[in-house]
Amino acid sequence: MTSHSPAAVAAAHPPPPDTGRARDLLLRELDGRWPADGRRLDRIARYALLPAGKFLRPVLLAESARAVGAGGAQIAPAALGVEFLHVGSLVHDDVIDGDELRRGRPSVMARHGVADAVVVGDALMMSMFAAVAECAERGLPAGRVVEAVRVLAAAGVDLCHGQLMEAELCGDAGCGLERYLAVSALKTGALFRAACLAGAVLGGGTPAQQRALRRYGEHLGSAFQMRDDLLPYVGDAGVTGKSGLSDLANRRPTFPLVVAHDRADRAGRRLLERVLSGAVPAAEALGAVAALLRRTGALAAAEERARQEVAAAKGCLAELPATSSRTLLERVADFSADRAR
Amino acid sequence: MTSHSPAAVAAAHPPPPDTGRARDLLLRELDGRWPADGRRLDRIARYALLPAGKFLRPVLLAESARAVGAGGAQIAPAALGVEFLHVGSLVHDDVIDGDELRRGRPSVMARHGVADAVVVGDALMMSMFAAVAECAERGLPAGRVVEAVRVLAAAGVDLCHGQLMEAELCGDAGCGLERYLAVSALKTGALFRAACLAGAVLGGGTPAQQRALRRYGEHLGSAFQMRDDLLPYVGDAGVTGKSGLSDLANRRPTFPLVVAHDRADRAGRRLLERVLSGAVPAAEALGAVAALLRRTGALAAAEERARQEVAAAKGCLAELPATSSRTLLERVADFSADRAR
């Protein structure tokens, strides 16, 4: 149990600065919901949820709500719910990709098999909606809760569209930035956007505030995915836990590769196409790909673009009153483009 | 497209008597929601949903709502939503069991692979909640809609608990009637119960009416699962599409087997245990198992028990005003225990 304490979690996955308090409160509530001595399903779900990762989405929902007026215990179930959906989709992702590792531990699939992983992922997704509905019992107006259900369900469907579209791009180094961004907006952006918008809705934000937080989440999601794609090339693999090999081995046209393909000469393009077609083993190709990303300036350009998304995200927050929550959302944005893991 | 017409569907899967009108209206709305020329996800989801099966759960939700006062277009999205959840869970079931056939056609897994089946099942489940939320846009009070979300999400989680528990019973011929019934109440009963209760909630039923419809759905679910388990032994395999082999091959302690184990002598028990342990191939064992079910009277006892559940279900309906919807719900109960497929 001690390894699941908020402190241990924070040590293993440094959260964005200043999110500690919101995180701790939410994690304490999460802890009681999936008891370690519960039924089999509860125990496996707990294994998937804890220790928590960055726990960004719950913090985004809770702070978006607080930034427009309401926060605290009334919002907490919905904030946790977004994490249930996110983790449920990760559990299913690992089934789809056959990934044996998640957050440095055996994935649910590796530990419990495909059948349990499919069922537990489903249960986590369902639990999101049960959790959101609880906000009405805690006194939030039912109309807001229904709207949050609608927003989050639509995001869940978008996420699925994004996954199928990503599979279609697989191996296609020349897919182009536009298609890359469209997939990223669905696969990653949808849930960031929905977390912020649902928070704004539940918190009773004005239509302008809801729009601002939705756009903030959208830009933040883009920045986050861009940084995720950049990590294998700019970070220390030992720190990031991303070896750079997994994206290449899965033949994913990630952000810097798409940018590089656009800028490279014929030989450079041919290299990227051969690697993503699977003709060259990922381990052999990594060095040459990294060199190409530097030589073409793709790495610098991709980092610059991620910073622009962060600036755009922060710009949206001007619509909100100056509160500690707004400051926190600004810092989360900075963190998203600079994080080393 | 013609093979998806309501008429063709009805011919392939005879619905319960008198549900034709409700079915047709709902199927028409479903047809427009998952366009045949839509995105890849929409097309695969459409393949999973149409032609529809018995389509019992949507009819139960819609007629439960109508039986307590409200019905029609305001309720339709939620009614369809229950089918989305049900079919999503079937798509995932086929991944888990490796089943290549569903309703006489290749399963989504067989046709599109594991990855697409996992993602499309997820999307169908999410779509349920988006659909339920729509009822508020169509004028139903938000408080009722939130309560329906809560009921249906809880049922979805129960369904997952039931699937894990069923896996634990696998191979255990002597698990006993009590444990069998507990699993059935979660795996099948939860969604029948939730469909009826959510209908009663959305329709604005009194607490007593909500209770009555919840219990009706519970008994109906039991009867339905019992009949499903009995079909391989009482029906014509050519008609039922259930060969009797799949349950045995999957080493499932189905209803008649559990009853037979309780009544059999030592040799009979040993036979059942050996078959469910996988020591005897299902195809070889089917005849001997069927003979044992008859000799011990287990078949007759199991059929009698299913009829009792139907009677209990119908008894619950006395709480409702005498309307054509109540009559229809009575007929659905009769159908559930007598159906030949």
UniProtKB/TrEMBL annotation, chains A, B:
Q: Is Metal-binding included in the keywords of this UniProt record?
A: yes
Keyword list, A-Z: Magnesium, Metal-binding, Transferase
Q: Does the keyword Transferase apply?
A: yes
Q: Name one GO molecular function term.
A: metal ion binding
Region Disordered: what ranges?
A: 1-21
A UniProt-annotated Pfam family: polyprenyl_synt
Amino acid composition bias (Low complexity), ranges on this chain: 1-12
Its needed co-factors are:
Mg(2+)
Query: Where would you find the membrane-spanning parts of this chain?
Result: none
Q: Name one GO biological process term.
A: isoprenoid biosynthetic process
- Record's family? Belongs to the FPP/GGPP synthase family.
Protein's name in the database = Polyprenyl synthetase family protein
UniProt organism field: Streptantibioticus silvisoli
